[in-house]
Each structure stands twice: as structure tokens, then as C-alpha cells.
Design brief:
Elements lengths: L1 E3 L1 H7 L2 H16 L3 E2 L4 E3 L4 E8 L4 E9 L7 E9 L2 E6 H20 L6 E5 L5 H11 L4 E5 L3 H14 L4 E5 L2 H5 L4 E4 L17 E5 L12 H6 L2 E4 L2 H7 L1 H8 L9 E2 H7 L6 E5 L4 H13 L1
Helix pairs in contact: 1-3, 2-3, 2-10, 2-11, 3-4, 3-11
Length: about 300
């Protein structure tokens, strides 16, 4: 059995490789090659257990996640991957942030304008940095605004990312509306229970990713954005209708038809041509963890 630390995960699977792995996994998901048991949730989402079985290869992944939003880090997880006669146990916290960033990279590559140069990051928690790394892997971003409630945290994150990407201009701040007013891409990575902005605060052409809200009671996106977006894409409709507060609210209120939701795997096979405002909402699915664990095992 191989045991891999967070440092092992990061050094073995860089973000571009993670994006490629997650993209391939969603194509496999669209082809019907995964068995996905329902995610188990305990203690109002404080403990989650996810699993995925890839039938063609006979490989499987199981992840246990502990979530405590009042602690740092807020997410603690362990991933177990089995296949090809071996078992791998890896730090699931790093895999979770990496694969969540990677799926945003896949979605952004599909829906954002090819010449996007301005990114707005909303949130300064554990998931935030990989959102930026993923977008920078698929677009030539020149300017990034890092927005959080605490200016000191926003400044610290901006400095950390600036050290990684010295060619990019990072600006910290606390005003969401100022941050998104001229953005080409917006990444929401917060634990908000209410929408972060209204649709009229956004440019007419913008792509918005939302990955922070993972419970039915949480919401980062406003109804009016979901009602007017040309494309609302999710990782999986079933998962979104169980766990995404904004998608559940929009569908049950009649703001958005469930049939209008586009799954990422389907989009990868159809190559959508988005216009206006586009949205990608992710709650995370097992094949993402499988993809990173498989890449770890192969490398």
C-alpha cells in the first residue's frame, strides 16, 4: 500500500495534468462507465463519504471528508484508490482542492471567451488558490482581483499567488461589485448562505464558476443570473439537485427549468458555443477524485 502526503499529491500531479485527468473522467462519466453510489452525508454535511467505480478498468475510489467551516483548514479528507492489484491512500484535502480547481479549469476552457484576461476571485479560503491556478492554466490571464471579507487575508493570498505567477497583476480588495464589474471570468469559492451579488453587477459577457456552496441551504449565485444566463452547466444534474442550494432554489421557484441544465460530460462531447453570461456550478462528483487518484497511481 502506498501512502501519499499533500506534498506528494502536489508534486506528482500539477494543475495542467489534473485538468487533463478530470476532463477525461467526465467523458468517461458521459459514456456511462462509472457506477456512482449516492453520496452519504452525516451531521448536516459535517461528514461526507463519496465513492466511484470505473467499470472498464475495475478501479475504484472512496473519499471521506470532514467539514468544519469554523476551523482551518475547513476540509479534512482521506482518499483510498484501488486497482491493478495495488492500493493507494492519499491526503484527500489536497486532492479535493486540486480536483475542484481542475473541474473549473475544464468548464472555463469550454465557456469563457478565448481572449479572457481578467479574473475575479471571490473568497480566500482553502479552495481559492486552486481556482486561480486552474483558470491560469487554460487562459492568458493578466489581472486577478482577490476579494474577501478580511482585507488582510485577501492581501496574503494575493501575495502568495503573485510569487507563483509574477507575470500576473494581483489586486486584493473587499468590494465584490468593484471586483466583478469588468471581469471576464468570476470564481466564487465562499461558504455564503446568500447570493454574493446581483446579475446586473456583472458585465454582459462573463463566465461565472461557483464551487463554494455545497449544501441546499447555501447560495453563492443569484436567481436572476441563473434565469438569464445563456448556459447553466453542472457537473451532474442529480448531484446538483440534491446539494446545490442555488440550483435547487432556481428550479423549485420556476426560475430555471431542470431540463435546461447542461452536464459537463455532455458539453465536452458537444462543444457548446456560449454567448452572454455563462455559469458553471459544481458540487463535486466521485469521478473527479478517481481521476486524480488514478493519475497519482500512474505517476
Amino acid at each position: 500500500m502506498k501512502v501519499l502526503s499533500a506534498e506528494d499529491v502536489r508534486s506528482t500531479v500539477p494543475m495542467p495534468a489534473a485538468i487533463d485527468a478530470v476532463r477525461a473522467a467526465f467523458l468517461e462519466l458521459a459514456a456511462g462507465n462509472f457506477v456512482l453510489p449516492a453520496r452519504q452525508s452525516f451531521g448536516d454535511g459535517a461528514v461526507l463519504v463519496m465513492s466511484a467505480y470505473h467499470a472498464p478498468s475495475g478501479t475504484a475510489v472512496v473519499k471521506k471528508i470532514g467539514i468544519a467551516l469554523d476551523q482551518v483548514p475547513a476540509i479534512r479528507a482521506t482518499v483510498i484508490w484501488t486497482g491493478d492489484g495495488e492500493q493507494l491512500v492519499a491526503d484527500g484535502t489536497s486532492i479535493t482542492t486540486l480536483r475542484t480547481g481542475a473541474v473549473v479549469g475544464v468548464a472555463t476552457d469550454l465557456l469563457a471567451v478565448p481572449d479572457a484576461t481578467r479574473l475575479s476571485l471571490l473568497g480566500t479560503g482553502a479552495q481559492a488558490a486552486d481556482q486561480v491556478r486552474a483558470v491560469l492554466a487554460v487562459r492568458r490571464i493578466a489581472e486577478v482581483t482577490v476579494t474577501g471579507r478580511d482585507l488582510h487575508r485577501a492581501t496574503a493570498l494575493a501575495k502568495t499567488l503573485a510569487a507563483e505567477y509574477p507575470e500576473v497583476n494581483f489586486t486584493p480588495g473587499t468590494s465584490i461589485n468593484d471586483s466583478i464589474a469588468a471581469a471576464h471570468i468570476v470564481c466564487c469559492a465562499t461558504s455564503s448562505s446568500t447570493p454574493l451579488f446581483t446579475a446586473d453587477a456583472l458585465p454582459d459577457r462573463v463566465h461565472v464558476n461557483a464551487i463554494g456552496a455545497f449544501r441546499p441551504t447555501m447560495r453563492e449565485l443569484p436567481r436572476d443570473l441563473l434565469a438569464t444566463a445563456s448556459t447553466v452547466m453542472v457537473d451532474q444534474v442529480e448531484a446538483a439537485m440534491e446539494e446545490s442550494g442555488e440550483i435547487i432554489d432556481a428550479v423549485t421557484s420556476g426560475t430555471l427549468a431542470q431540463s435546461a441544465l447542461l452536464e459537463l460530460g455532455t458539453a465536452l462531447t458537444g462543444h457548446p458555443e456560449p454567448t452572454g453570461r455563462t455559469v458553471f456550478k459544481s458540487v463535486g462528483v466521485g469521478p473527479q477524485d478517481w481521476a486524480i487518484a488514478k493519475a497519482l497511481a500512474e505517476r
